[in-house]
User: What shape does this take?
Amino acid sequence: MWIKDIEKNIRERRVSGIIMQHEAEPLHNKPEDLARAKELLQEALGSEWVTDDPMILIGYSRDQSPFPANYPHLVVMPDSTEEVAQVYKIANECKVDVIPMGTGLTTMALHIPLYGGIIMDLRRMDRILEVDGDNMYMVIQPGVNYLAAQVEAQKVKCRVLNPSTAATAGVISNHAFCNINTLASKYGFGIDNIIDSTLVLPDGSIVKTGPASYGAVKAQVPGPGPDASSLFRYAFGTLGTVTEMTLRLYPEQEHIYQIFPAYDEDRLDRVIDVLYKVANENLTLELAHMQNSFFGIFIGSTNKEASAITKSMPRNNLFTIFSGVTEEEARLKAQVIERVILEEEPAFEFMPPEAMDDLVGELRSANLDRWQKYFNVTVRVMRVRGSFLIGALIGHLDNFLQVEKGMRVATSDQMGHTDDPLPPDDASTYLQPYHMGRSAYMEYDLYTNQGDKDEVMRAVMTYARVMMQAIVRDGLVLACGALALNKGMPLPIPEDLGTIDDLLPLVMPTLAPIADAFTQFKMAVDPNNIAARRWDYETGLCKKLSI
Amino acid sequence: MKKRITATRQVLEELQADYSICTKCKICQGVHVQFCADSRFWRNCPSGTRFRWEAYYASGKMELARGLHTKELAPNEVMRDILYACNLCSSCQEQCYEVKQLLPTRVFELMREKAVREGWGPMPEHKKLAESLEKNDNPWGLSKKKRGDWAKGLPLKNLNKDQAEVLFFAGCTYAADPALLKPVRAAALSLVEGGWDVGTLGAEELCCGAPMLLVGDRDFFETFAFENIERFNALGVKTIVAPCSHCAWVFKEEYADHLNSDIKVMQISEALWWLLRKDKSLNFTNEVKMKAVWHDPCKLGRRFDQYKKPRAVLEAIPGLEVLEFHRSMFNSLCCGGGGGVPYAFPDFALYTAKERLFEAEAVGAEAIVTSCPYCLQMFHKAVEDKKSDMKVYDLAELVMMALGKEV
Assistant: This one.
């Protein structure tokens, strides 16, 4: 009795209740439907794996985005493709929304339940089902993270392409999203490295894509035959859930050699010219431009290590790693690139590898050899305190000089770390050629303080204006498949210009038909709109903008 | 009313920034990426691994703290169970602090103190420990008279009558558990073998208070701290050696400001290292042919960065092949015995100990060596439950074997 009395007392005195800011007049997720759904889900998955306890729900209420907390109504943990299908079938029957969650590391509110519903935590499905080193592929479930995948790939002398994220990030969700591979963009994005997938559509039917769909052996080339894999890219759970994926692996090179080209002037235009020259030679295993602070957070395993590296590095750096069957081959490639760089810009200097060895050798965790060969994961995502947004822009590097200036203004004076000598605005950009120079990638991070809503809004608005300018003036395209997330969402600018859908035909006319196609496809595969619902079919609007 | 030490206290709300800006990056759930060579062993949060829901990981418990702060949640039995199903092993903090400077383990410790203050903690099972502490000055029901029995026949001074330079503080668990008799006698004897002038408090020894601090009852802890500090300061000893890593933890972290400035506190593994490397008074003559893996107790390793000294002692033992767990040093997995978990959730504690035993088997060890009574107890239970051939030793036992001395 004692605890009940205390609970009652505390509630009466000061508890304002859990955050269930869902719809005023919900069409989905009605109390009676949720009760029925819970009952059916417990029958299907076992009562141990279904809960509506607020103490459990709160763990699913926030992520790394600036979106405020919002609770789901239920959380479930399926253990197989069949159980995922059961969840969708029950959700359809009861008209309850379903939001899948891979490993839960998301910067974009992908699993914050705007309207409540069921969070489907997929971390029980954490098996690596097959690793084939000869044919260089790996079959995994959605709970597998980059750390586990990479370690298993190494055992067969292969590697998984890593995005610039934490080792704890989910592989399937990143590959299906975009997965800008940190330093190996010559191999394409994550989405270019999916061989096949098993999906559960919102109606509960199970679909296989790629060679697996017609029983062919898994191969490094997609096909022959129709391949529906691309239809589900960037869908963020709005079209169902991927429960298995076959990924390409790449050989782990026997010999790795790295040189450290550096350019101390703060002139991005010169760096861009050199970057393209190097990319066009196609000799690097990995290639990117990093400012000293970004270099620090890539190599350092802790903030302290990142700061130490940052202080020791010149302003602009090219991250150039070479591989070879012999060490001589790797070194020879490096020599060619050294010459190419100096021909293009004689002011470049080369930091001796021994100096870098000395630098990281003094640190507890940073180990350049292991970092280069195996993981390529950084503390960049992990080190964020508060929340952040990623601005990912794709186009030609030459276009970025203007954008870079705007971004730097937008991201200056951000929420910093009180004891962190790395200011976020300075440690949040890198440039890399994509597909060896035909296009490029640039990224800025926007740090926000979730505890200060005005600050969040100011930061997001400033950032949005720069992004809009970049799109309208410089013809840049948003890297993320924002349609699934932003469709029907009111524009985050003071003037009432309507929704993203209204603006899209004006600023990106070529993308507008794709938005229509996405809309039609979503309505066809998810007639009840239960899969990660963000907009209503009837109105076409997102009811909530939870910033 | 018993007297207590008076020290500045921290309250949960002071760490609001920590639990409010945790961004769920999940770094707290695993080992450091650069040190993982087998994906089977990447997880390092015992409660999250066992119970799976996000709330059981540090990132989820940080949300519970935020929910308490914002009044989104009122404490109930479920919140209490989640909070006390944490081993407080600090693995999460070890990972998080290095990158974000957040202190999740400290948040959970203060949540427990809040729980006790407000009456919704600790677990009912922990109250039995408190009752025994009230009655017997130890949490395990050991009669006060028998407290010093473990030392019968050993050449140790009685500090209640005599003077000695070193106080050997056995601790409740070593004193009370017959299965730990050999380790504690080995620890005390090894100091004598090294030439130190060692005494004990015998039956007058009191609990250090650590069990109560772990479950969040700081008031009760501070009464033990007060009595112990008064006594330690009056003894005139230069060094306190504790075989128990939990005793050493509270002496170093909680007592330190109140102890005479010339009193040095050592955990037994530090003392053995000192005898071996500084005094050079331990002469290992016997071979100990065995493949042994060192388990870092959380309160020794992550709390005080004592990784190298126990390994140096082991490596000095002739014939001993010293192995490493996949999860070792600051990535070490808890034995399951931390945070008061074995008394409230014995099955979960055993689950974690068996996972560690599995890892020891996976690296090819014939024996697990450690230096903490809770770790020893948990590994004994795991070995018994799995009917494993794995041997379990305290570091001091191996030292005595290497010295060729019977305990």
User: Anything to note?
Assistant: The longest helix of chain A spans residues 453-474. The first strand of chain A starts at residue 50 and ends at 51. Chain A touches chain B through 70 residues (CB under 8 Å).
